[in-house]
Write a structure and sequence with these properties.
This protein is of the alpha/beta class and about 450 residues long. It has a domain of about 300 residues: Spore Coat Polysaccharide Biosynthesis Protein SpsA, Chain A (Alpha-Beta Complex). About 55% of the residues lie in helices and about 10% in strands. Strands 3-2-1-4-7-6-8-5 form an eight-stranded mixed beta sheet, sandwiched between helices.
Length: about 450
């Protein structure tokens, strides 16, 4: 049994290292994407909200100032706070701001349903003779900050200027990555931990996730995210015609939409030369809650593997990449169980045989560098890459520390995956709204489990 688990462990490590190499090379070689003319399209920005009074005024003002020709559609998902009132007040003096008001029992049924409500409102708002292929819908979180060049970049010849492109996703940055005191009412150690968590999220999105998207550019399987997601309205129309509505019930409704775009015969693009900034979470409990939801959504989307395999719009490489991503939570659980078994068996073996640990080290010392390379290297490498590409003014040793931190950071997966599979097994599929950092000291319940 020990040999079986050892062989399985080796296979998992080798396959993962091969995957890291396959995303790293296209990421480092990615070309610059030329901008286009944003005036060639009509822009409508959807902002789903649930208890967002802490940030929504700032977000509306920033979007309207940065993109004066764009329309902002705020979906209030029956907030308990003043979100709806604040948006309604803005609509009185600004015709480019629209409130989509949802009420229970129809509200709080998921982010996808909220976005579908905005889609219906936009459909009613637009004239019948609108060229819907020239209308672009963007989804931004309530605390999101689109870079000033965002619309121009996604209007480029490689993105929406290409009629084959149905959707695009831009890179995500953490806007509080340089906050030295993210928790002003707490001590130094707590703030150190918060700064670490913030920085790791920034590294994750700007290197690891962006690199995955670079590979997907090659395989034509780019995924969409929940923040900084752009979709052509005519593509949403096609998805509604085929599947009943644009967004669906998965807890990873953004990636699900991207799959539907591809199944409908359109292409997705990832745009790394612009970004949307969002607030990184500073509390590990809220962070794991968020990632549990994402993991569970990934598990739910595994049901699309059959459709992907059977689709004529996915080639062999695209099927392989998409299927690997969708089964990854299951592979990670198998790996977790395998390594727990091997660790336990090794500890028991050392305990039963005197000096066994010393003899093992003498006999296998040459394997230790390999352990570092294959066990830590695939995570560590993103620290130096991040320093070079994103923080070139930081010293060399900062990249080393960030690399070590990234290796430790990924252990959160075992927490979020365990919770996600438990929720799947127990039939819990509710949408928990993640509390903003500005709501840390709010009175009353903010984040709710639907």
């Amino acid at each position: 049994m020990f040999l079986v688990f050892s062989a399985l462990s080796t296979a998992l490590v080798v396959s993962f290292c091969a995957y890291v190499a396959s995303i790293l090379i296209p990421f480092l070689r990615r070309p610059t994407q030329p901008p286009g003319d944003a005036a060639d399209f009509d822009w409508h920005i959807f902002v789903p909200c649930r208890d967002e009074e802490a940030v929504i005024e700032t977000t509306m003002g920033r979007l309207r100032e940065t993109f004066p020709d764009a329309h902002v559609w705020v979906i209030d998902d029956d907030s308990d706070d003043a979100t709806g009132r604040l948006v309604a007040e803005r609509t009185v003096c600004d015709p480019h701001v629209h409130l989509v008001q949802r009420r229970r029992p129809d509200a709080r049924t998921g982010k996808g349903d909220a976005l579908n409500a905005a889609y219906a409102a936009l459909d009613e708002y637009l004239p019948a003779d609108t060229d819907r292929s020239a209308v672009i819908v963007c989804v931004v979180d309530a605390d999101g900050e689109l870079a000033p060049n965002a619309l121009a970049q996604v209007a480029g010849r490689d993105v929406f200027a290409d009629p084959k492109v149905g959707a695009a996703q831009i890179t995500v940055w953490m806007k509080n990555r340089n906050d030295r005191n993210p928790l002003p009412h707490r001590g130094r150690f707590v703030n150190l931990c918060a700064r670490y968590l913030i920085r790791m999220q920034d590294i994750e999105f700007r290197t690891m996730i962006a690199a995955m998207q670079s590979l997907r550019e090659r395989t034509r399987t780019v995924g969409l995210g929940g923040n900084g997601q752009f979709t052509r309205l005519s593509t949403l129309d096609e998805i509604e015609h085929r599947y009943g509505e644009p967004w669906h019930g998965s807890l990873l409704e953004d990636y699900e939409l991207g799959v539907h775009v591809l199944l409908a015969g359109y292409e997705n693009r990832h745009v790394h030369d612009t970004h949307v900034s969002q607030e990184a979470l500073v509390n590990f409990r809220r962070f794991t809650t968020q990632r549990t939801r994402w993991s569970q959504g990934n598990i739910q989307c595994a049901r699309y593997i059959k459709d992907i395999v059977m689709s004529r719009h996915f080639d062999n490489v695209g099927v392989l990449e998409s299927s690997y991503y969708l089964v990854l939570p299951f592979i990670q659980v198998v790996g977790f169980i395998t390594w727990i078994f091997l660790l336990a068996a090794t500890v028991v073996g050392f305990a039963q045989v005197p000096d066994a640990a010393g003899h093992w080290l003498v006999a296998n010392w040459a394997a230790l560098p390999m352990l570092l390379v294959f066990g830590i290297g695939p995570f560590f490498i993103w620290g130096p890459i991040y320093r070079r590409q994103c923080e070139p003014d930081r010293p060399f040793w900062a990249g080393i520390l960030w690399g070590i931190g990234m290796w430790l950071f990924v252990f959160y997966l075992y927490v979020s995956l365990s919770r996600a599979f438990f929720r799947v097994i127990t039939g819990r599929n509710g949408w928990a709204k993640t509390r903003r950092n500005a709501e840390m000291h709010s009175i009353g319940v903010v984040a709710k489990e639907a």
